[in-house]
């Protein structure tokens, strides 16, 4: 699981459309992996830029998630807060290959203290 | 076939071009080269299929019986002969040697090349389930597959198509026309989710179901079942079994890169090529579905033509380069008009312009970004598809025609530039504005001039836009033209996705029998493709309330607390409140709670205002285990997290209290047993006080009972929250039975009438106490009718949601996907 440029985090079928799941990183930031109603996948640090609410628990509509704590809308593509709110959550490059999900290793490990 | 390699061309020797793949890409590339320089190359083509070059995308009409194989042949034997092309069909290339510059075929033939073109296309993706290799399991890629399907269809029976994408649906359509009973299994919730959004996917699904196909979405194939050595059916993850005489796998394609990879060429998802279709080896080119260009692999035919042109340009010394393609899709299913192009996923800065016409089954959505069309989905009326696609490809600035854009080219070209109201102003007075109610423009203007100064007033006066609402935009423009700044804004709409009010949405759901969120959005002309975090939960509740036992709750439309059956706290952990009926508890329950607090290191446990205990700091992963422990002690969910019945607060009443007049505790328990689990527009609190001293604070609850010597005073619409409101006295009754009946009826009235997220206090103020009283007490039958509806809906909601989770339901909501432990790597 931990070799190469891309980190295999398992089959796409683990995440139902319209939901998100968590991927804790020991010593680093927990990652949120989203599956939109349209079938797209995105990965972000699981923290709203506002008060660090867990974005996995929000309502997903289009390619946006509404944070469960104070309803900030966060773009799943860019991590940017939408509307009048300002702030940005780091995104993690993700690719789907052969029905499996891969995250860019360096981005996953970005916050890990060696 | 004519063999002609390396013969003279004046003083030059022809370069040898070997093409791997006799499909659409390979042959088109050769055609493009020949058109530019017919004498430059001696061409040899290897094809895996034992036949000439045909139009693969027309296999669907062949399956459907609308065309024959002869109709779809692109290049017959003559073409190869006329152009001195050597064709080795039925003999696929087995290996490439890029250093020796030769290819070797499966039959052992070795062919040298100067330039090699790889056009191996793609392979159907086979999902790795048991039974995938059984006879009767086919893909939908070539003529052999079609012939197998046709053979199966001859004896009728059942077909299962796995994959609800473009190819799968075309296969399903063909098999259905050939007389088979077809079931489509699709993993995603929306058919063709790469091209369609939820709204258009839902329309397509309805039409296919109307034609007799069974469509199962969100369905994951577990195994293909066998009987007598061949396919007999399909089993889904949820245990459903579907009979099948043939199974078509159409779940997607993968670039066929095996040869290129083995030869040492650079390959990622596809064979990597530059803008001239040259691979990592300068003498090897690649084109079609097997390539990856600027990170993109294509699976449609249009990009292939673009690639072939730039490849031919490069090989004939007139390079122009390929910059990638924007693609559009049409479904080749007769009678279904469907068009999709560009990026329809929305995204930052993108704006949706949506038009729906429920009466004609039309849905149009154009995605605009920076004043340019970036995507479009059309269903039911695709006339303007090419126009939108053209605007998209050219990147034209659409700001001058923005207001008219969604109405199509004819309308936009009609001189409305600059003034969005001009088109409406130009309509003749007898033009019919509202098709549903047959209202002309003149009538609407007359109605406005007669004093209807808001959308709602127009709707109630002359009924224009009061039914399907698709002419709302036109009526609003007429208001603006006729009144200028004097237009009065109407009542608040449900959210910014719709022009309908909460009441209108609720009424329409019942009157039109709408039973799914996408259906409501289509029928009521939602202006966004799949709603927002405001309207989705509201619609989910309205449907749940309107169709108890029938509507399937959409978990994705629920706030986190109702999805996880616990209250999220600021640090992302949850608090857990088990139900304590009427505020009563016992040693067993208290022990279980104490054990949970210790076992899960809950940092705090607190007595709530609703007379129960709240355990704080539980992680979502631990919730099912916590609930299991609480369930084991006989406790169920307290719904402290829901827009639902919260608690029934009681005082000790006549059993202990020297002032008590009735058994308030016992009555409270009875009420809680009757009402728990019910979903409501907002949270709902009840209290029962045993005497007018009112220790249970019943007069600031949604429903309060104050016991007196002669019976029970029933109070409604109280709130102890932000806006303190004392209850209104509804009535006084003599028996517990009457209390229970009126309580059920009042809740049901609130459930059926209030707006989502409207507490009873604001609802009672909005409607008036007299209205509520009249609804409940004006007709002697009313209480019974409402109570019966409440009890019926309770039959479907009084299941402990915790127990279901403990039993393993929706484990994915609680468990992590995986864990990354970077330190392990260092030890490895």
**Secondary-structure element pattern of chain A, one letter each:** EEEEEEEEEEH
* Helical content class of chain A: under 10%
Strand content of chain B: 15-25%
Number of separate strands of chain B: 40
Strand content of chain A: 35-45%
What is the C-alpha radius of gyration of chain A, as a whole number of Å? 13 Å
* End-to-end gap of chain B: 59 Å
The strand line-up of the biggest sheet of chain A is: 2-3-4-8
- Number of strand segments of chain A: 10
**Main beta sheet of chain B:** 5 strands, parallel
Mean pLDDT of chain A: 89
Count of alpha/pi helices of chain B: 27
**Principal-axis shape of chain A:** globular
Give the uncertain stretches of chain A in residue-range form.
none
Would you tell me the structural class of the helices and strands of chain B?
alpha/beta
What strand line-up does the widest sheet of chain B have? 7-4-3-11-23
User: Which structural class should the secondary elements of chain A be placed in?
Assistant: mainly beta
């Amino acid at each position: 699981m931990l070799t190469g440029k891309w980190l295999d985090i398992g089959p796409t079928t683990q995440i139902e459309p319209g939901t998100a799941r968590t991927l804790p990183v020991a010593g680093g930031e927990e990652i949120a992996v989203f599956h939109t109603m349209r079938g797209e996948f995105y990965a972000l640090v699981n923290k709203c830029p506002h008060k660090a609410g867990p974005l996995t628990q929000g309502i997903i509509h289009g390619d946006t998630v509404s944070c469960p704590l104070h309803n900030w809308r966060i773009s799943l593509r860019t991590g940017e807060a939408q509307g009048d709110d300002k702030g940005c959550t780091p995104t993690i490059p993700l690719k789907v290959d052969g029905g499996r999900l891969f995250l860019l290793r360096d981005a996953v490990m970005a916050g890990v203290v060696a | 076939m004519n063999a002609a390699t390396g013969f003279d061309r004046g003083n030059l020797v022809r370069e040898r071009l070997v093409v791997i793949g006799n499909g659409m890409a390979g042959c088109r590339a050769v055609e493009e080269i020949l058109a530019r320089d017919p004498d430059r190359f001696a061409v040899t083509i290897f094809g895996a299929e034992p036949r000439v070059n045909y139009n693969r995308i027309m296999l669907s009409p062949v399956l459907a019986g609308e065309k024959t194989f002869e109709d779809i042949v692109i290049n017959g034997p003559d073409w190869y002969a006329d152009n001195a092309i050597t064709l080795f069909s039925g003999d696929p290339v087995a290996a490439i040697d890029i250093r020796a510059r030769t290819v070797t075929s499966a039959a052992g033939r070795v062919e040298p090349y100067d330039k090699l073109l790889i056009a191996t296309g793609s392979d159907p993706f086979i999902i790795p389930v048991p039974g995938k290799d059984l006879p009767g399991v086919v893909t939908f890629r070539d003529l052999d597959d079609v012939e197998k399907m046709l053979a199966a269809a001859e004896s009728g029976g059942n077909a299962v198509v796995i994959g609800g994408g473009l190819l799968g649906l075309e296969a399903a359509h063909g098999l259905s026309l050939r007389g088979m009973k077809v079931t489509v299994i699709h993993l995603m919730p929306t058919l063709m989710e790469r091209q369609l959004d939820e709204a258009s996917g839902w329309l397509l699904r309805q039409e296919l179901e109307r034609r007799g196909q069974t469509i199962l979405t969100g369905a994951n194939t577990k195994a293909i079942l066998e009987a007598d050595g061949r396919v007999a059916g399909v089993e889904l993850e949820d245990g459903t079994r579907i009979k099948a005489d043939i199974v078509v796998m159409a779940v997607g394609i993968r670039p066929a890169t095996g040869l290129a990879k083995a030869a040492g060429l650079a390959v990622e998802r596809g064979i990597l090529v530059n803008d001239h279709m040259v691979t990592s080896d300068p003498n090897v080119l690649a084109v079609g579905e097997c390539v990856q260009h600027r990170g993109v692999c294509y699976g449609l035919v249009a990009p292939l033509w673009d690639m072939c042109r730039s490849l031919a340009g490069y090989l004939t010394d007139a390079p122009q380069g390929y910059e990638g393609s924007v693609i559009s899709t049409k479904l080749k299913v007769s009678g279904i008009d469907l068009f999709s192009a560009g990026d329809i996923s929305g995204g930052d800065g993108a704006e949706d312009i949506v038009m729906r016409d429920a009466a004609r089954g039309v849905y149009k959505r154009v995605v605009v970004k920076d004043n340019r069309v970036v995507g479009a989905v059309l269903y039911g009326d695709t006339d303007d598809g090419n126009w939108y696609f053209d605007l998209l490809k050219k990147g034209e600035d659409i700001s001058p025609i923005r207001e008219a854009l969604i109405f199509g080219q004819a309308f936009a070209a009609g001189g409305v530039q600059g003034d969005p109201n001009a088109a409406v102003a130009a309509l003749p007075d007898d033009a019919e504005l509202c098709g549903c109610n047959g209202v002309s423009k003149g009538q609407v203007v007359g109605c406005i001039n007669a004093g209807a100064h808001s959308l709602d007033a127009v709707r109630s006066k002359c009924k224009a836009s009061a039914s399907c609402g698709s002419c709302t935009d036109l009526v609003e423009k007429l208001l603006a033209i006729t009144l200028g700044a004097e237009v009065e804004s109407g009542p608040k709409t449900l959210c910014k996705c719709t022009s309908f009010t909460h009441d209108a949405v609720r009424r329409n759901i019942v009157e039109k029998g709408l039973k799914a969120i996408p259906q409501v959005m289509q029928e009521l002309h939602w202006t966004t493709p799949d709603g927002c975090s405001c309207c989705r939960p509201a619609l989910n509740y309205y449907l749940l309330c309107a169709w108890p036992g029938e509507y399937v709750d959409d978990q994705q439309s629920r706030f986190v607390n109702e999805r996880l059956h616990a209250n999220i706290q600021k640090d992302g952990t949850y608090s857990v409140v088990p139900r304590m009926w009427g505020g009563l508890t016992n040693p067993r329950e208290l022990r279980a709670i104490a054990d949970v607090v210790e076992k899960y290191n809950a940092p705090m446990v607190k007595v709530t205002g609703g007379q129960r205990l709240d355990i704080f700091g539980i992680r979502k992963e631990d919730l099912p285990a916590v609930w299991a422990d609480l369930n084991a002690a006989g406790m169920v969910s307290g719904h402290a997290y829901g827009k639902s019945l919260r608690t029934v607060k009681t005082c000790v009443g006549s059993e202990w209290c020297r002032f008590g007049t009735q058994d308030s505790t016992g009555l409270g328990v009875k009420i809680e047993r009757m009402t728990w689990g019910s979903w409501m527009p907002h949270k709902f609190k009840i209290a029962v006080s045993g005497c007018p001293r009112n220790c249970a604070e019943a007069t600031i609850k949604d429903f309060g009972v104050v016991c007196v010597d002669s019976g029970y005073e029933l109070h409604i619409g109280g709130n102890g929250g932000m806006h303190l409101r004392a209850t209104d006295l509804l009535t006084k009754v003599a028996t517990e039975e009457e209390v229970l009946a009126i309580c059920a009826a009042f809740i049901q009235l609130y459930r059926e009438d209030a707006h989502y997220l409207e507490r009873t206090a604001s609802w009672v103020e909005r409607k008036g106490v007299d209205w509520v009283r009249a609804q409940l007490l004006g007709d002697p039958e009313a209480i019974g009718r409402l109570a019966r509806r409440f009890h019926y809906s309770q039959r479907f909601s009084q299941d402990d949601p915790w127990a279901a989770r403990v039993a393993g339901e929706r484990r994915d909501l609680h468990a992590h996907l995986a864990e990354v432990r970077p330190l392990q790597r260092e030890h490895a």
